[in-house]
């Protein structure tokens, strides 16, 4: 019952569409083939008749000429008979051509109509089966003669975008070097740090939240940084290159009350 209702509301199912168009296209293709055959036969019959006309016509003309000569014994009459005979053959040949040409034109018109119908049916089928959207999707996500290299295409695109991002970073770095001459050390350092953040972001795939997860390590004794970064909530040991102080951090789940040293440092250094 539900299926019947669904069929009524949801329109014709896909299989029916395919069946219908298979039937239509078969019929149209059959018509085209038949008309093609008729066209060929028409030309062949015309050739055959022309050939017959030439052989039998000239034979008849010669026969009539001979009869005229034997009856009247006069060359002008014989010549006239020949001339009239040849003209009759030419006239008949022209008539034959006209008739067959007329038939040919009719068949060609029918053939054109059938071909237009064929094209129209194909277009309808494509629309009914969403061919164009499917096709464009397939083209977008596949390549190669068997269209099976979809993964590599996607990978290539990803690599290309990564490459572009890195190229941009390289440009930025060059710009940074050019600009840093007129700035204070702190400003230049800040910009460099920001640039490094971007590099790490690109290398980590972009989905990694640098701002929250990557923190600079600051020595808890001398409060100096060495440009070293750690990922928050991971295990690490840091030896300060300035004073030799060693500090370790064990991985802690997020949300615990005891803050890791790096977290404290981050709060302290968030202004820089
Ligand atoms: Zn230190």
Explain this structure.
With 272 residues, the chain is mostly helical. Among the domains are: 14-129; 214-247, no CATH class. The protein has helices spanning 2-9, 14-72, 75-128, 131-141, 150-179, 185-203, 210-213, 261-269, and strands at 214-218, 225-231, 236-239, 246-249. The strands form two sheets. Strands 1-2 form a two-stranded antiparallel sheet. The protein has a two-stranded antiparallel ribbon with strand order 3-4. Helix 2 runs antiparallel to helix 3 (75-128). The radius of gyration is 46 Å and the shape is rod-shaped. It starts with a helix and ends with a helix. Residues 1-10 and 254-272 have low confidence and may be disordered. The structure holds zinc ion.
Write the layout of secondary structure elements.
Layout: H1 2-9, H2 14-72, H3 75-128, H4 131-141, H5 150-179, H6 185-203, H7 210-213, E1 214-218, E2 225-231, E3 236-239, E4 246-249, H8 261-269
Antiparallel strand pairs: 1-2, 3-4
Helix pairs in contact: 2-3, 5-6
This protein binds zinc ion.
